[in-house]
Amino acid sequence: MPLDFPSVSEDLKHVIENIGKKSNVEEVKNLIKNLCSLYPLRIQEISALLKRNPKYVKEVYLKDMVELGVLEYIFPINLAILSKCIGQRNNGYLK
Q1: What is the DSSP string of the chain?
Q2: Which of 8, 17, 40, 91 has the most CB within a 10 Å radius?
């Protein structure tokens, strides 16, 4: 996690530590939503936490979440760059 990442609950730590490669897509999306509600994260950071490839994370989880308005890019979208920050809509980090 980023050095200045806010402290997370023990339950959330447990979910992060036990997330598996075969985890349910909705379960992983919920985890991403919970993490982004605490701190805006880059795709690489989310990928590292999930132990998954950034392209896979973007295509399987983030693309739908952004399209549905669950998450939004903090900076203008440039699909060629995978390091854009994303955060949960309407939290303290986003306008």
Answers
A1: --TTPPP--HHHHHHHHH--TT--HHHHHHHHHHHHHHS-EEHHHHHHHHTS-HHHHIIIIIHHHHHTTSEEESS---TT-TT-EEEETTSTT--
A2: 40
